[in-house]
Amino acid sequence: MYIVKQNLVSKENYAIKCPYEMTAEWIVVHNTANDASAQNEVAYMINNKNQVSFHYAIDNQEVVQGLPIDRNAWACGDGANGNGNRKGIQVEICYSKSGGGRFDQAEKNAAHFIANLLRERGWGIEKVKKHQDFSNKYCPHRTLDKGWNGFIQTIKSYLNDVPTISSQGFKVGDQVKVKATATTYATGQTIASFVKGSIYEVIRVNGSQLLLSKIISWVKEGDVEKVNEGSTAITTESSFLVEIICDELNIRQKADFNSKVVGTVKRGEVYTIINEENGLGKLKSGVGYISLNTKYVKRK
Ligand SMILES: [Zn+2]
């Protein structure tokens, strides 16, 4: 859909571009009102000496970050102590001057990216603001022309599209035990000793990170192990074993070759298939489906 890059302002320019530390409380949406790409928008911003700045510029192909998000930006026109300038993650949507297909795609990418920012922070849709909320400027102008509510609905649709399986196959609802060897959370803080060896439920997943119940902290999936493995999966009469005979084979979310890839299995690994559908076999772990094509797997 898009790639995410950084082209961060140099520390010498912090005094102009982002002088204050910030704990963000919302995301503020803007339109650039020009036709520059995200890369050019950020390059221009970080290199000039104006007190004008933002955190991300997003176009039809990429998200480019120009400022660290733990520092403020000058984007809302509400002054040195304004709630917009001092508490907002500023997102600029590119190509708004001329609009058209590339703007529409940039806006879609922005909605998707903003949904990720919300999810990472555990924030709801009410955290998405527009520049206009903080000062009288009609910004994000084209997004407002098209209808702000439509944009919010697009973000919501991406928010609902929550991945439920981690890179290594942990799912929301899994019971996991934090390993004794774990040292830090995904956020870098030290894991307290009482957490190690304790069992928690996975309440959210994000790539290789898992959000655990009770402690409400993100852990790296390598730092936990599943408990009661297989207790919820049903082994039926028709189940059988397959060995993977290709280097790598995708795990699909559904019994459909076009469904989302949620992981991979590797050569030499053996799996129990509990159900066959459309040429795909359902893994006993419940992680998803793999092709049963004899080019890729061998029945045991
Ligand atoms: Zn603006």
Folded structure, characterized:
By secondary structure, this protein is of the alpha+beta class. The longest helix has 21 residues, at 101-121. Helix 4 (101-121) crosses helix 6. It is built from 6 helices and 18 strands. It has 3 domains: 3-160, Lysozyme-like, CATH 3.40.80; 175-226; 240-299, SH3 type barrels (Roll). The protein starts with a strand and ends with a strand. It binds zinc ion (ZN). Zinc ion (ZN) binds next to loops.
Secondary-structure blueprint:
Layout: E1 3-6, H1 14-17, E2 26-31, H2 38-47, E3 56-58, E4 62-65, H3 83-87, E5 88-93, H4 101-121, E6 128-130, H5 141-146, H6 148-160, E7 175-178, E8 199-206, E9 209-212, E10 217-220, E11 224-226, E12 240-244, E13 248-252, E14 261-266, E15 270-277, E16 280-283, E17 289-291, E18 297-299
Parallel strand pairs: 1-4, 2-5, 2-6, 3-5
Antiparallel strand pairs: 3-4, 7-8, 7-11, 8-9, 9-10, 12-15, 12-18, 13-14, 15-16, 16-17
The total of beta strands comes to 18
CATH domain class of the largest domain = Alpha Beta
Enumerate how many helices there are, as a single number. 6
Quote the average pLDDT: 91
Indicate the percent of residues in helices: 10-25%
- In the CATH scheme, what's the topology name of the largest domain? Lysozyme-like
Give the low-pLDDT segments: 230-235
The spatial strand order of the largest sheet comes to 1-4-3-5-2-6
> What's the CATH H-level superfamily name of the largest domain?
Peptidoglycan recognition protein-like
Q: What class do helices, strands and sheet pairing give?
A: alpha+beta
Strand content: 25-35%
Give Rg in angstroms. Answer: 23 Å
